């Protein structure tokens, strides 16, 4: 890939932009051509579940991309190391907005693990580099990336994951209301979702999206736990 990286000023972000578009297209094409002929709604959910930074960063860790990552930011290295350790402990690929969190006794302290965007970017940029180095061969890119993506494609096709925020809003379209972000004393973000008549649920994270997802998950757990059980004959 010497041609791609011949200029030190040519940042990997250009390749990341290219790789993102390529992987989006290839995964979408594969899902569309699936013999199971998924409905448009399922296709949308599957693509969202498979084409996102959480999945790409998780795969980058699984295939040791992080061991070759170079950066000068100690904070970024800390975030990457935390994510790597979590993935090794979990030993399982995570889906879109899945439960990347560590639970503590105090629910206020339940916090999502930050997914380092840089890891997902590297996964995408390599796809862009392979595309350029193979004389713009989409087939070559897919030959490299499909074996890595296949277990997740099959797993999610069998059980399509959904965003907890979307699931909550579908369950409680009129009564679930999210608050604006609040800053905690240590600089993190707290979001509260109120489900009218059923309670308030808080989530904490390093960003609004993470905190919002955490709050939605907590609300869903409570709502599902309190749903009336269907009596079996």
Would you mind describing this structure in some detail?
- It is a single chain.
- By secondary structure, the protein is α+β, with helices and mostly antiparallel strands.
- It folds into 2 domains: 12-161, Ribonuclease iii, N-terminal Endonuclease Domain, Chain A (Orthogonal Bundle); 165-226, 2-Layer Sandwich (Double Stranded RNA Binding Domain), CATH 3.30.160.
- It contains 8 helices and 6 strands.
- The strands form 2 sheets. Strands 3, 4, 5 and 6 form a 4-stranded antiparallel beta sheet that branches. Strands 1-2 form a two-stranded antiparallel ribbon.
- β5 (189-195) and β6 form a beta hairpin.
- α3 packs across α5 (117-133).
- The longest helix is centred in the first third of the chain and has 21 residues, at 12-32.
- It is globular, with a radius of gyration of 20 Å.
- The relative contact order is 0.14.
- The model is unreliable at 1-9 and 102-110 (pLDDT under 50).
- GO terms for molecular function: deoxyribonuclease I activity; metal ion binding; ribonuclease III activity; RNA binding.
- Residues 160-225 form the DRBM domain.
- Pfam families: Dicer_dsRBD, Ribonuclease_3.
- Residues 1-135 form the RNase III domain.
- Keywords: Hydrolase, Magnesium, Metal-binding, RNA-binding.
